[in-house]
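Incident log entry.

Two folding requests arrived from the same account within the same minute. Monitoring flagged them as a possible duplicate submission, but the sequences differ. Recording both here for audit purposes.

Request one:
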Amino acid sequence: MRQRGIALVIALATVLVVSGIGTLLFLRTLGEIRHSGQDQGIVQTLMLARGAANAGGTFLSTTARDRLSVIVRATASTTDCWAYGGSNNCQTGGQPDPVAVAQALATVASQFQTQVDNYLCPNGAPRNLSPSGLSATVTLRVHFTPSACGQSLPPNTRLAEGRFVEGAPRGVGSGASQTYALPFVMVAEASLGPYRRNIVLQGEYRFTVGRASFARWALFTNVHTLPNGTDVWFTDRTLFDGPVHTNSHFRFYRQPWFAGEVTSAGCTNPGNSSCSGQTRAGAYFYGVNGGNLVLASNMQPSASAPSYRNAYGTHAPQFTAGVDWSAPFIPLPQNNQEQKEAAQAAGLYFQRTITSLRLYRQCVNETTGLEVPCSLPLPVGVTKYQYIEVTYCANRNCRDTNTETYRYGEDRKLYQKVGQGQNASWQVVQRQGSEVYFNGVIFTDGDIQSLKGPDRTDPNDPNTAGPALAEFAQITVAASGTIQIAGDLKYETPPCSGVPTRNPDGTVTPATCDNLTARNVLGVYSQDGDVLIDKSAPRDLHIHASLMSAKGVVAVENYNSISEKGSVYLIGGIIEKYYGAFGTFNPQTGQNSTGYGRAFTYDRRFLQGVAPPFFPTTGQDQVIGVTVFSYGQREQVY
């Protein structure tokens, strides 16, 4: 009995020990499960916060940049040697006064903060950046001032003053640019259930200021009428997906669509270099106010979204990126001296009229010297070249002509073809004992009677025309006189495809511009003449370029008498003194009657500061580049 009692006690003790061990193991397992859940929640919120910080970097490089550029155009000095910082230390190697720079950039930061908050915290409430389907909250705010989205700076953080980084004062070299920095603090927060993660990143938002190129506009007019004074009306057929500006007044019929900012200086009598008449902010709406100007202050229901209904329909232009009826007057260039000097220095300069200018891309087998297809990837020993073939008048009456052919590769070293047939060779162009590296400018003191790329193999199919510009080519064709475009001018790598399209429900589907890293770019610029699409140009003409006439129009030759020829498919923009006509159409059917229709797509690279080489610039500044520098970050768990 005693032994059985001892055995029972041992058994009970063993059960208790095993039970205790089991309980401990169970409790430990529960703790590990709980700890694992905590780790998962922390990791998830960390990843979400980091994702928000990455989105913030993208925002600063894209949307924020566009909004800063608007502020810079309004705040940067157009007369001082420094965009910000006054006119002190304008000598070579000088720098602006740091105190003056800090004061000026404080104003920029304040205005910029408002724009950033409007995007990240519309109506005062922060956007939830959490992926759809996930019950998390992810927010982002960026401080350029102590308060962002209604919240103060995080503890133990501060903002330094804005500063000048580098650059040359204006007047020291052509197109001097200057870089400034706005310190910022970015706060990305994520919460998922009871878990929160907070990432605070500090850095500098550096932006480079330079003179704005006229290429930045999808459409620019000095006087928004035809040269003969005929009124020009934007209608339902009007679809512009880039910035549009006039120094005078716009006229609207029904619902034209604008995806870029619309600006008007409101000058009643625009001169060549300034407003010669009164400045009256407003626009014309068909059949409204007795056909007279409607002042911006009287627009109904508001100046930002005017809308009028009468017997002719509803006149309500769609300003999807905003409108400014009191924008600054922007004079067109008064001469082309800069382009001429650039051509003489490291471009191609011709004193007399060019009868034919042909641009094309070709690939060459360097061993055989034979032209071969430009298939990708290029075979070993094959080089891609940009060709320029110029025929020009050899004397004043142009009874004789000379033809010269040039080419250059990606290194821009310029070669000229010497000799004919089997005896032809390519020799490096030299000036003043140095090899010429082509700067992209082709200039003549006369006219250009025919500008085009490769001919189509099928005259009715624009897809059969080869590229006029190689993927690396950047060219400005400039003339004192008139330039006539006689054929397709296409990029090897276009930045955009398609055109803005009006849908049956009245909405607009924009073009696709998803190749904004494309390098090829073309400018066509006449100072004293017109840029005309030749009456002999083929049907459905494709032009990839920014087209500009400082004292005339960009138009179609004999637009109202030639046969109907489809549309001009333009990727780029048009800058002109007067509005140029392309064709006529039947108002009952909406179909073209003569000339060409317009199928325009804005090259959105121009908003990023891209422009053809030595293309004319305005007296305004714009942001031509931004860089986001991070000095470090810290993370917090709640």
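Request two (distinct sequence, not a duplicate):
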Amino acid sequence: MPLRSTLIRAAVPAAMALALLAGCATTSQKPAVAPDGSHAQVAILETTDIHSNVLSFDYYKLKPDSSLGYERTATLIRRARQQYANTFLFDSGDTIQGSVLADYQAQVQKIGCQEELGIYQAMDTIGYDGGTAGNHEFNYGLPFLSQVTGTPMNVDGGHTDRCAGPHFPLVLSNVFSARDGQPIFKPWAVVEKTIQVDAPNGKKRSVTLKVGIIGFTPPPIMEWDKQNLAGKVTVTGVVEAANKYIPELKAQHPDLIVAVLHGGLNTDTYTSEMENGGWYLAAVPGVDVLLLGHSHTEFPGPHYQGMKDVDAKRGFVRGTPAVMGGFFGKDLGVIELALERRDGRWVINKDKTHSEVRPICPTKTDCVPADPAIAPLVAKAHDAAVAYVNTPIGDTKVRMSSYFADQGNMTGLAAINAAQREYVSAELPHQHPELAKLPVLSAAAAFRTGFGGPDDYTDVVPGPITLRSAADLYFYPNTLNAVKVSGTGLKAWLEKSAERFNQIDPNKTGEQELIGKGLPGYNFDQIQGGLHYVIDVSKPKGERIVHLTYKGKPVKPEQNFIVATNNYRASGGGNFPGLDGSNIVLAAPDGAREILAKWLQQHKQIKAKDLEATSWRFAPLKTRGPVVFKAAAGKQDIAHAVGLKNITLLKDNGDGTAIYAIDLSR
């Protein structure tokens, strides 16, 4: 069994905390102290962005998927504990949302106050020392968050009693109740654990190590989950929160302070709204170790190579040991700390310290086994979730997929856009009759475009449609919003989306990558509803949208439109120009996925005529060298079936992916 840490202090109201500390000081036994010259190896283990993927199972394809799942991460954790005598385990958030199992327990058959959420049951079986809340923790609303984390919250709808929650402290320092200005979670905590150290005389010695933890979530949650949070909580920047609470935490005299941030690294000028403030947090005095998340990538790793003051090989950010352990349970983050006792305190020997990310699948065919203790914990909920997503709601004659969505296949988006347009067109006259005559468009992005691997695509094949199909088409539990934009704003929206592509030089003879790294697939909005436009990838960013027309006529700068989208985009998610929440004209109480499911149900059988044709194309461009992109292998027939006959297979990579070429001149 792993050593369990003991929560000895947490940030409760100051007067009470001091009283408790004073009481502890008079009754507790004085812990052993390591003499100067002692040294110890301590491993800080991290999970992040699990997104409630408890099992190695794909609920959209209804089959096991060994490339993900907390049940395999658990195996890595147990192995790390066997390797290291001294370990602490933390989670950096985005834990309770993101899978069909999560939606089932939150929205379909909501668990009761005395039931523990499936992902927390799994984590408690392994044993954690602390964690924080990510942005997706707020997706189901504050009442649900209060309940499942076992955290009474003085907010609208918050639980005043303590329900079943995880058996480890959750800390969050930058979100506050609008009622009383107090943090909705404890901002910090101190955990202590007996560790084995090497004394100067070479003998082993048991001493107590006290680790302070402080948590942070991305400040843009106020935009992304506006419908759940507006008027209920306030948020501060991560650096501001650190400067406020770290002195308070240091007053408890921890040996180390670990900042648990649900955020990544960004070297742009700091603002209090910064989404990925890890680079700045690493330099706050008092932060000894930094745990990262949110970005769904790995640190250390090549993605961060060349970033200022970042060692992307050994895992340091501005001199602070750091790690970000992947997503969906695919990896475990490990920081191997070398501690030395100097002048009566522990210091980190940075020359002997390093970080690494350990994958559950070192190769595609070599994955660690699942921990057998995990699956039985959620077996009943898992079976119910599978039955739920198999509920039939209709039929389709059209294959709706996100394969080649970046190249013009909109079959996976057309149903979303149709459902969103119909909903807004029906609701808008009731709420804003003065806007009822404006054209209604709809924007949607392909959420699954291969980022998570060759199986990470939406693919609803002809035949029966189930609720699983709706969840596959619409991956996130967003709500529907509608915004009013001008022709100028509409073009700016599309220009931002077109940043998905690299600028292509027609005279270059070598290969050129079509897809850039600056804009993720879920931010490549494709707009329909009588709109047609051309993307010229030979032009620089901001100048790529040409021949923008609505029903055959050029869109005028002053022309107004209503665009159906999701709450994330309408409230500023993705930093699209003109979208900051101020021009929302409709905020639907219904989830976008539920609206789509109802539309599929109403149409009973989806035919080609029910789905609007692709609204955009690339400008003809003859290039001297090939323009290439990476996608799932063996799918060229799907491209050809939807009219993308200019796509050819160049190379099968042998790992489920392939390199394709697109002839932009055709």
